[in-house]
């Protein structure tokens, strides 16, 4: 088996976000790291929408990012700290829309290691140097400068190592133009390591250390070191030089301290939420923050781990700080990074859940929120807690949201709605922000209007009145025997005095020349001039016009019998017929002329589709008018044609590629490159769109030409980030479409569907899935489908949280003690404010039945008494007429590490009320946490800790029938087929077992030689298992065929029972078929098909929200081709963050039998000469390679 | 077998006859000196490089520190921990670095 890996949706989590002027203009951009990808975002200052400009896969783990600008420069560079053992400096190239690597300096081994720098990056605010640090010991300082040609230069590294020292955080201090200073939060463990009495450990201090880079002497010295709060975790630099007093804010549990050399420290408590359920012994830390400077003042916005943002200001004169002040600002989701944009936005890169952009409505200066000053808390012996009242947003307003699936905990791929492609049902999020999401492949649309028409129309157009009008004036709807003209204004109304002929159906409408309109109907052409004069051209004899194609200067019509008549607009605005007509050999089924290119008189090509299964390109040049230039044979009669120039060339924004799109009657769309000089047709790509003939319409998306293709579902072919995309729209089936622009809808599409007229706009270009969201209560763990009712049952479990009953108890106890509290504080929406934290070991859990189609929870069972649900299965018990029961595995008083519980339970529920709710049948005790459940031959197979048991359903309990305890640690996953059971252990990979019916035993006969910390697996076939582990690896293991047969053909079963173990395990070993580092922890994996008529593939989801596929290769040639291409890509396009691609994909063990399709797809991004070079090496043309890469994707997935 | 023997065997597959006793003496002395200094160099450069007297505790501590550093570096893994524990990622990272100070409890006294 040889596989091809492709990402369908890149990771959606963000671990770092930075803001800067990366394109060198006034506009600020945000660069975010999506762990394995670098992405550039722009916030539109007017609309407040976030827009993705560029994403690039770096094939490595980005751990830190920082923007950086040379003194006096106007453009920010990006410094990347990753797992590559290298520091990389990138520059954004706005013309080519790509990141250019300027410097790459190697300093250590690759991988996320303890002493290899990359975890921390600190940059001098004046842009003179950068420090890159590791968690322990190593810190390197690079001096950055510019040479005589104003290029950025980087020095060799200076060492600031200190062994036996752990680093918590590292920042660049603002010292103006004095020598650059870096501040680190350090702990020295050397003494604690040697003292067995523990005294040294207790006396270990956390130190704030300043490292000064002496630019004159060119070395780094430890300048100052001072103990700070032992629970300090984060530093923020206070502006220095002319802007402020310099120094740092050291954030620790419950306190924020201002510290600087030679000045006394000041500290202020972090205000806590006023909440009766709050645990006062629990410390509160700052998790993210940002400093903002403007016109001589500065402030900090720091966020606590509850999500509350505090505003911190410093009261200072010259260099002396008198006090630090803190006040509550607003509450937003807990962030990985906060960014303030000068246009008045706050970007919150959430650690889990959707990322958000907020706009500032005020800076919180003049509200009546209480403010605390360090002047009141100077006595260190009396630590005090101060409280604030959380409230809804007051200073911020939500502007935009980026969808994020992170963390994606479980998913299923099912086709419950009988669409062309299956849907992905996913459990996402953590805590009260958890969601159940339904993902459909397609672009999201927003519907603006739906209006009914007095009949079933067959076509719709919009038209402007003048060539330079901004908005459309009319919507023209054609019926079987009439034409309706609607004017677009505040409302859409019928008008009659437009010059259009209303008593006939219409074939085409176009705005012609500067100010005229054109209507083509079966009996002739109406040319409506601006002064309402109408020129008519009637068809000769009783022949009718069957097809027409127009642009603003040219008109082509096809008469019955296959005769083509060509008209062109002259300089007087007169439509002139070309003297000759062209007789085609077959009936014309479709026509298309391209748009007139800018500063040209005419489009040079006419495409004619005939029912002899061919499309011909005819010249419209004056020299050889209507001469056939090229022909393309087709597999079916063409239904529709569209010549369009798509802006898909990165290097040149003003010119694109001319394409001929051909929609066939059998539902296939062909896209062929039309040579804009010779008219030759080359490089055909095809795609099956649906069961109905494909109709094509030219529309505009984001100011660029695009094609709307309508079959049994609507599709859109458009360019996004200089790449062509063909994506379905998540919308009803449409009959006919046209572009639509009005003051209310600047860029929309008007279409007809049955007897309605629809106006909609396409949003979120570039996304693969659109989502429907159902809110959940706690972190979801697993879910299953109840097939008869198509309802889902979800188990949600939250650690560290009060269950409703427990909450009530605590509140009652407090009330008894006479503590008064405000009920409003308890009623705050938990989606924003989170659930109050209880102590460790407290669990809240529930079982929820969801109807996914109406998005409604039909039943919700809360588990009480500290019980937490961990596993779920439906089992058809053979002794209950195969009725489907729901079994849920729970644990009471579960402890995370070590994994223990006071008692485990197996709940059995019956589906009642047509699967809408559940009825508890009984509970069965067990001795450990049941983490894996499975229906097995009409019984229940349960993995309870390390024991595997078979249970039967009894009247009052589940009855234990069979048990094996041969699994080393803990069973997390079970699969079965026939008598074979595959057991996945938490640490020790897979175990193959056989159930022997006659003596009722489970015998393990094969296991794996590699330890794997398994997360999710799927049985690919009877002998093969594919899965993922906690380190982000993907693997396939297979039982050798002879072993498999031997085991199954053993009649007595004695052979495998008495066989000797091998290598301290089972007698047989599985063989490794593939291994690959996917880069994300695989949380679910499925064997399925994604496209209609496509091959079976493996689809996986990762915890960071990525969705990918593994496509098996069919032929040996393909394997050779892609392996060679991959090898060339590794050489020609080494990953951006400096990680070696082969090393990355072999992170934990060498990559085996998988080709990285994402790397192969980067072929399209290479410059032309490199493309050609690789193509020559592979003995193919560039277009052939591109086609092969595209085919690989579209044949199996999207 | 000495180093030269090994080299000559692996290169040519025939053993050259050399005055072994003489060479061996010099090489072993040099080797020992080299080896020690190299080891010391490695130990100072790469934290956690073991030596003849490494005990189980030290080995464990080293393993744990390496593991924590790896968890912190891999965002997917730290997210996984964070979801399980229901704590923020920053909190989990902070606690991990804190734990690196003494991951396996008090050091055991060395028996001399």
UniProtKB/TrEMBL annotation, chain A:
Domain annotation RSE1/DDB1/CPSF1 first beta-propeller: ranges: 13-397
Keywords: mRNA processing, mRNA splicing, Nucleus, Spliceosome
RSE1/DDB1/CPSF1 second beta-propeller domain boundaries: 445-761
Classification via InterPro entries: Beta-prop_RSE1/DDB1/CPSF1_1st, Beta-prop_RSE1/DDB1/CPSF1_2nd, RSE1/DDB1/CFT1, RSE1/DDB1/CPSF1_C, WD40/YVTN_repeat-like_dom_sf, WD40_repeat_dom_sf
Protein name: DNA damage-binding protein 1
Any one biological process term the GO annotation gives: mRNA processing
Domain RSE1/DDB1/CPSF1 C-terminal: 844-1163
Organism of this sequence: Diversispora epigaea
Organism domain of life: Eukaryota
Family designation: Belongs to the RSE1 family.
PANTHER family in the cross-refs: DNA REPAIR/RNA PROCESSING CPSF FAMILY
From TrEMBL, chain B:
GO biological process: mRNA splicing, via spliceosome
Pfam families from the UniProt entry: SF3b10
GO cellular component, one term: U2 snRNP
InterPro entries: SF3b5/RDS3-10
Coiled-coil ranges per UniProt: none
Source organism, top-level taxon: Eukaryota
Protein name listed in UniProt: Splicing factor subunit
Species name: Diversispora epigaea
């Amino acid at each position: 088996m040889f596989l091809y890996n492709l990402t369908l949706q890149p990771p959606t989590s963000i671990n770092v976000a930075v803001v800067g002027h990366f394109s060198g203009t006034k506009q600020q951009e945000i660069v975010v790291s999506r762990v394995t990808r670098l992405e550039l975002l722009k916030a539109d200052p007017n609309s407040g929408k976030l827009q993705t400009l560029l994403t690039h896969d770096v094939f490595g783990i980005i751990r830190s990012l920082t923007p950086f600008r040379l003194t006096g420069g106007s453009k920010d560079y990006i410094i990347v700290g990753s797992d590559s053992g290298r520091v990389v400096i990138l520059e954004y190239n706005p013309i080519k829309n790509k990141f250019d690597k300027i410097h790459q300096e190697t300093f250590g081994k690759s991988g996320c290691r303890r002493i290899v720098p990359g975890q921390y990056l600190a940059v001098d605010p004046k842009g003179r140097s950068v420090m890159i640090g590791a968690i322990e010991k190593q810190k390197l300082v690079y001096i950055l400068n510019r040479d005589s040609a104003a290029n950025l230069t980087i020095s060799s590294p200076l060492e600031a190592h200190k062994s036996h020292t752990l680093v918590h955080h590292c920042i660049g201090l603002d010292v103006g133009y004095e020598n650059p200073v870096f501040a680190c939060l350090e702990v020295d463990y050397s003494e604690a390591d040697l003292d067995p009495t523990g005294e040294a450990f207790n006396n270990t201090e956390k130190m704030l250390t300043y490292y000064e880079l002496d630019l004159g002497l060119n070395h780094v010295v430890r300048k100052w070191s001072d103990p700070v709060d032992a629970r300090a975790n984060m530093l923020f630099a206070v502006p220095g030089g002319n802007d402020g007093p310099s120094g740092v804010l050291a954030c620790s549990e419950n306190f924020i301290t201002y510290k600087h050399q030679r000045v006394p420290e000041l500290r202020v408590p972090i205000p806590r939420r006023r909440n009766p359920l709050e645990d006062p012994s629990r410390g509160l830390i700052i998790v993210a923050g940002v400093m903002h400077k403007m016109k001589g003042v500065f402030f900090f916005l720091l966020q606590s781990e509850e999500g509350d943002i505090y505003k911190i200001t410093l009261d200072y004169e010259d260099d002396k700080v008198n006090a630090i002040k803190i006040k509550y600002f607003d509450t937003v989701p807990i962030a990985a990074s906060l960014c303030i944009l000068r246009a008045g936005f706050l970007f919150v890169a959430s650690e889990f859940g959707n990322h958000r952009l907020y706009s500032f409505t005020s800076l919180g200066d003049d509200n009546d929120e209480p403010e605390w000053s360090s002047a009141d808390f100077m006595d260190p012996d009396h630590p005090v807690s101060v409280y604030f009242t959380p409230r809804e947003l007051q200073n911020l307003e939500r502007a935009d949201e980026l969808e994020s699936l992170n963390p994606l905990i479980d998913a299923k791929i099912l086709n419950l709605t009988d669409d062309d492609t299956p849907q992905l049902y996913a459990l996402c999020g953590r805590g009260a922000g958890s969601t159940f999401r339904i993902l459909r492949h397609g672009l999201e649309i927003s519907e603006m209007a739906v209006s009914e028409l007095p009949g079933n129309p067959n076509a719709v157009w919009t038209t402007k009145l003048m060539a330079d009008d901004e908005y459309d004036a009319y919507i023209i709807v054609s019926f079987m025997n009439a034409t309706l003209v609607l004017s677009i204004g505040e409302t859409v109304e019928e008008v009659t005095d437009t010059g259009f002929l209303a008593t006939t159906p219409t074939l085409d409408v176009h705005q012609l020349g500067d100010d005229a309109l054109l209507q083509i109907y079966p009996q002739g052409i109406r040319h409506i001039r601006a002064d309402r004069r109408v020129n008519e051209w009637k068809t000769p004899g009783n022949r009718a016009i069957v097809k027409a194609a127009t642009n603003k200067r040219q008109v082509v019509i096809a008469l019955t019998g296959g005769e083509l008549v060509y008209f062109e607009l002259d300089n007087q605005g007169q439509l002139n017929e070309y003297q000759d007509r062209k007789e085609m050999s077959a009936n014309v089924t479709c026509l298309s002329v391209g748009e007139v290119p800018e500063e040209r008189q005419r489009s040079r090509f006419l495409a004619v589709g005939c029912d002899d299964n061919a499309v011909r390109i005819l010249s419209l040049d004056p020299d050889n008018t209507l001469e056939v230039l090229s022909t393309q044979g087709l597999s079916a009669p063409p239904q529709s044609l569209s010549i369009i120039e798509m802006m898909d060339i990165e290097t040149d924004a003003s010119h694109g590629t001319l394409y001929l799109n051909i929609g066939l009657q059998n539902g296939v769309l062909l896209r062929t490159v039309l040579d804009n000089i010779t008219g030759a047709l080359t490089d055909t790509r095809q795609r099956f769109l649906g069961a109905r003939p494909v109709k094509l319409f030219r529309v505009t998306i984001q100011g660029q030409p695009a094609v709307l293709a309508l079959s049994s579902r609507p599709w859109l072919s458009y360019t996004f980030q200089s790449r062509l995309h063909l994506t379905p729209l998540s919308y009803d089936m449409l009959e006919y479409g046209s572009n639509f622009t009005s003051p209310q809808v600047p860029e929309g599409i008007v279409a007809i569907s049955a007897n309605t007229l629809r106006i909609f706009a396409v949003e979120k270009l570039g996304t693969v899935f659109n989502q429907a969201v159902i809110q959940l209560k706690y972190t979801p763990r697993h879910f299953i489908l109840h097939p008869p009712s198509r309802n889902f049952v979800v188990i949600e479990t939250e650690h560290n949280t009060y269950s409703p009953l427990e909450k009530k108890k605590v509140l009652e106890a407090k009330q008894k003690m006479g503590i008064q509290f405000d009920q409003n504080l308890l009623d705050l929406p938990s989606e924003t404010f989170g659930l109050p934290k209880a102590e460790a070991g407290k669990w809240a859990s529930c079982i929820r039945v969801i109807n996914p189609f109406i998005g409604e929870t039909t039943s919700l069972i809360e588990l009480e008494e500290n019980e937490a649900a961990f596993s779920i299965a439906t089992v058809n018990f053979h002794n209950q007429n195969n009725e489907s029961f729901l079994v849920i595995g729970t644990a009471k008083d579960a402890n995370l590490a070590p994994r223990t519980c006071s008692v485990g339970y197996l709940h059995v529920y019956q589906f009642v009320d047509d699967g809408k709710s559940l009825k508890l049948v009984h509970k069965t005790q067990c001795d450990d946490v049941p983490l894996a459940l499975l229906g097995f031959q009409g019984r229940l197979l349960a993995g309870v800790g390390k024991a595997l048991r078979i249970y039967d359903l009894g009247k009052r309990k589940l009855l234990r029938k069979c048990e094996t305890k041969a699994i080393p640690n803990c069973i997390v996953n079970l699969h079965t087929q026939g008598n074979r059971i595959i057991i996945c252990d938490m640490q020790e990979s897979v175990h193959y077992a056989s159930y022997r019916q006659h003596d009722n035993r489970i015998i393990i006969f094969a296991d794996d030689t590699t330890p794997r910390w398994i997360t999710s697996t799927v049985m690919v076939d009877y002998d093969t298992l594919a899965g993922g582990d906690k380190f982000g690896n993907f693997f396939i293991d297979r039982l050798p065929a002879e072993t498999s047969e031997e085991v199954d053909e053993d009649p007595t079963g004695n052979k495998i029972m008495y066989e000797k173990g091998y290598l301290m395990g089972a007698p047989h070993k599985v063989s490794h078929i593939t291994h690959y580092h996917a880069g994300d922890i695989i949380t679910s994996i499925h064997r399925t098909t994604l496209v209609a008529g496509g091959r079976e593939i493996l689809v996986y989801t990762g915890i960071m929200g990525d969705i990918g596929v593994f496509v098996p290769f069919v032929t040996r040639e393909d394997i050779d081709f892609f392996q060679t291409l991959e090898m060339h890509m590794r050489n020609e396009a080494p990953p951006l963050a400096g990680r070696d691609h082969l090393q990355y994909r072999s992170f934990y063990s060498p990559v085996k039998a998988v080709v990285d399709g994402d790397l192969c797809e980067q072929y399209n991004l290479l410059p032309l000469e490199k493309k050609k070079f690789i193509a020559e090496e592979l003995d193919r043309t560039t277009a052939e390679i591109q086609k092969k890469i595209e085919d690989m994707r579209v044949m199996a997935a999207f | 077998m000495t180093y030269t023997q090994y080299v000559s065997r692996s290169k040519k597959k025939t053993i050259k006859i050399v005055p072994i006793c003489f060479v061996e003496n010099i090489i072993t002395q040099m080797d020992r000196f080299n080896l020690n200094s190299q080891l010391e160099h490695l130990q100072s450069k790469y934290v956690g490089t073991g030596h003849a007297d490494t005990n189980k505790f030290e080995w464990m501590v080293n393993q744990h520190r390496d593991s924590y550093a790896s968890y912190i570096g891999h965002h997917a893994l730290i997210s996984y921990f964070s979801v399980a524990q229901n704590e923020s990622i920053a909190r989990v990272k902070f606690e991990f670095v804190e734990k690196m100070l003494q991951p396996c409890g008090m050091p055991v006294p060395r028996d001399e």
